[in-house]
Amino acid sequence: MAEQEHLPQEEEWFDLMPAEKKLISISLGLGIVLLVVLLLVTHTI
Description:
This protein has helices spanning 9-12, 18-44. The chain is an all-alpha fold. The chain crosses the membrane at residues 23-41. Keywords: Membrane, Transmembrane, Transmembrane helix.
């Protein structure tokens, strides 16, 4: 088995780029909105 190289502790995590933050927020927002729409549609049926 090949051993994996482990990065030093300070290099394992890094800040997200602004584009990544925007995509995450859009995805979460869209998911919440679609969940609310689904609940409203199923409640009215």
